[in-house]
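User: Second chain of the day. Same drill as before.
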Amino acid sequence: MKRLCQAALGTGAVFLSLAGMTQAADTGRTLIVMDGSGSMWGQIDGVPKLEIARNAVADLVDEISPGRALGLVAYGHRSRGDCSDIEVMVEPAPGTAAAVLDAVNTMRFQGRTPLSDAVRIGAEALRITENPATLVLVTDGLETCGADPCALGAELEAAGIDFTAHVVGFGLSKEEGAQVACLAENTGGRYIEARNAASLSSALAEAVLKTERPPEKPVSDIPPASLDAPATAPITSAVEIGWTGPADPDDYIDIVPADMPTARPVTWAYVRDGNPARVKMPANPGEYLLRYVWTGASREAAAASQPITVTEADFAIDAPLTVELGTMMSVNWNGPGNDEDYLDTVEAGSPRTESELTYVWVRDGNPALIQAPSQPGEYDLRYIVQGPEAREIGISVPLRVTETTAMLEAPPAVRPGAEFPVRFRGPKTPGDWVDIVTPGFADFSGEITYFYTQDTRNDEETLFAPETPGDYELRYVLDGQDGRKVLYRLPLAVAASAPARTELAPRMDADADVVGEGPDAEEGFEEEGLGEDVGFVCDGPELCLLTDEGTGLSFALPPGWITDFPYPDDEAEGDPVRLNMMPLSGDGRIALNPNPLDSIADGMCAPVAAGRLCVTPQSDMAAFSAVFQAMLTATQPVIKKNGQMRSEAEIMDAIRNGLPEGAN
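Assistant: Same format as last time:
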């Protein structure tokens, strides 16, 4: 009953495809596949992940034998919202290390994450050689282009290719790490966790160069903890475990094989979620250890452990403990498998064997797909045996159903009859649809127009506005087995005065959390699909003058532009505050005090009061000029001539040709 990981992989990933890992394999082929998605602007210890990744790749390239052919594939680095944005930037060949580093340092991190297609392209490139190939994935998030890299890993393994993938989880949560580890497991590789710059370099060296990490010093002063659990439990059952311990926010209770106590946890539960904690048993019988893991030190440490024997069972259900309402669950099961047996969901504790909320026949396959109930709450997921005279409950496991995170995004106003884009997030079950109705319309037929969510690509589609001007609503409708339900409503104005252009703002990163549990959702960047790595947004018609409270930096931002989070670089001389500005639409970037490794630092730059302001050639120069003038105070000779303000063209010429004497 071992279930393949079906979760998608994510944004901010760096793949290192390595043909051979010893001196004898120096004639092999090495391909670096690097993620250029927007989430790489996120920070770890105050430093953007893209800078950490660039430095780690530079360190790694220095260690690779010059006789090995080296190449680079990048994706998400040229355009936003484009799942086909994959490019071979450097063809594999000996002596290309400098070209690879130059290409990595010129990448713009802004797009989506077609992770699986990039891996497939890398695997196809490696297929032309008979040397063994190893992929080392360094990822900070999840796939966003609808593919399944876990299934791809299994496919490549089944194809008989001498191919191994190791996965380095870069700043991932425990849940995310478990989702991406399947790529390594499906190809015989390992999952390695990296929390910061030092551990990323160490993990890359361990995976690529086969160097051993130095022995870690024992964690001292571990606080006392204890566990209260049964000695045995059936496979896949949910066991309640009492605990005592420090209860730090990220402490958890997990289960690992008894003979591999330092292995990646099979399952776990955070102690913050309650006492007793509910931990799901593995799908394979055997001897295991339950552990209370303390996270309050520099690294995790087991504060308490207890053996547990996981036994075989006549009946078993292997399913998530928590799901979002209306979603389709993949459920592995053990049971008689009679034609009339089925899985169902009912309210927690209900003994009835009819009028179930949702169900699926076990004859339809194993694993089976069953829909979660359409209301949040506590439920039971059960295997029902259909006997000659009655139905019996073979096994029942708890299921928690949470609120929806469904959302819709569309232009607020469109012209009558105009075609316009709609972006959505939701369960996307077979019958779900998005429609246009009049405000407050409650029926599930008689809509003005609609599309089915399953018929879309990348969770986007277009609709035609009604011909009659007025106020309307967009709805996301869940087609649940236990009833239809409107998950989200979004106002839509139809007016002749509406703008002719109807484009949506590009997705800034693929793994952005989108909020919106109805029309009264919290306001914030996530509601607009900008993601958690956006620091500031200028959404007004004029230049925004902003101050970051954390660093004290005052700066200007053009209308329609965003920034990452300002951060001080403690390792650089003078502790400069670094900041990147990007337009919501179009190309370009303005950087304050860029890292010297960033290619923008070698381009057009000029001093301002806060340091050094640089711009890429494809940027809007009028926007740069406005920011430059607003942030000046220490460079008045640049913007004034004989006491008069220079024109924008004169300012740009002054920057291009070098600052006049006396400018700082």
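The two ends are 69 Å apart (CA to CA).

User: Great, on to the next one.
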